[in-house]
Design goal:
Number of strands: 6
Helix content: 40-55%
Shape: globular
Strand order of the largest sheet: 3-4-2-1-5-6
Radius of gyration: 18 Å
Distance between the termini: 32 Å
Oligomer: single chain
Number of domains: 1
CATH class: Alpha Beta
CATH architecture: 3-Layer(aba) Sandwich
Largest sheet: 6 strands, parallel
Length: 239
């Protein structure tokens, strides 16, 4: 294989599940099932390339507020099934590949049983260290920044920090991604060219790639071509 410059951290906006299902004349929500199956493929591609950290935008706060209840229940049931599989199947690809799973977002807005399943999966995988999979659920970048400001404001009120000592390092400690490197590359499928409130602060100097294919139809060739293109770009970081 040609030597590639490999990003450490890749963020993914997996758009197009419903449109893909409509394209195949299936129920729009059927696409979410295919979308979940694509996660395993993409993780295997990341493993092959040596990408160690993946952050996937699975459900936005806007989705949670505006999607039909029937669709949300369908999504929640898929999540329940996947969490149960991880917890009960010792040869699940998450365990075989020693993938640590972290979840972030307004998780308290999710059904209680999902919250419990999430905590169990986090606990079960916390000692794995080969790969890190972050799942952004009930997440919004603007809201994350507001929450960080509230945390810092509370620390100022309690006398734990002085306002003139607040800098980027201090601010980062109040983000969901505290301790992680920013994404080097963010990929969005589905043909849309926007970031939809995903990792707004963390993506300040990320490279972006927008693909026309829907998420379930993303191929290995598509993915490898994106990584190849990433390696050919000159990253300037504001210089």
């Amino acid at each position: 294989m040609i030597h590639l410059i490999i990003p450490t951290h890749v963020g993914i906006i997996p758009d197009g599940n419903r449109r893909f299902a409509k394209k195949l004349m299936q129920r729009p929500w059927k696409g979410h099932e295919w979308g979940v199956k694509k996660f395993e493929e993409v993780l295997n591609w990341c493993k092959e390339l040596g990408i160690k950290i993946i952050t996937i935008y699975t459900l936005s706060l806007e989705n949670l507020a505006k999607r039909p209840k029937k669709e949300l229940n369908f999504l929640f049931n898929i999540a329940r099934k996947e969490l149960k599989e991880i917890l009960e199947n010792k040869v699940h690809y998450i365990h075989e590949n020693e993938v640590k799973i972290q979840f972030f977002g307004k998780l308290e807005l999710l059904p209680k049983d999902l919250q419990e399943g999430i905590e169990k999966v986090k606990e079960m995988t916390k000692k794995y260290s080969k790969f890190l999979l972050n799942l952004a659920i009930a997440y919004g970048g603007k809201q994350e920044i507001i929450e960080a400001c509230k945390k810092i404001g509370f620390e100022i009120k309690m006398g734990k920090i002085k306002p003139d000592l607040i800098n980027e390092e201090v601010f980062r400690k109040s983000l969901y991604t505290n301790g992680l490197p920013d994404p080097d590359l963010i990929i969005r499928t589905g043909g849309e060219k926007r970031i939809s409130n995903f990792l707004i602060f963390q993506s300040a100097y990320s490279e972006f790639k927008f693909l026309d294919c829907f998420w379930p139809e993303l191929t290995k060739e598509d993915f490898f071509n994106v990584i190849k293109e990433f390696g050919e770009r000159e990253r300037r970081f504001g210089r």
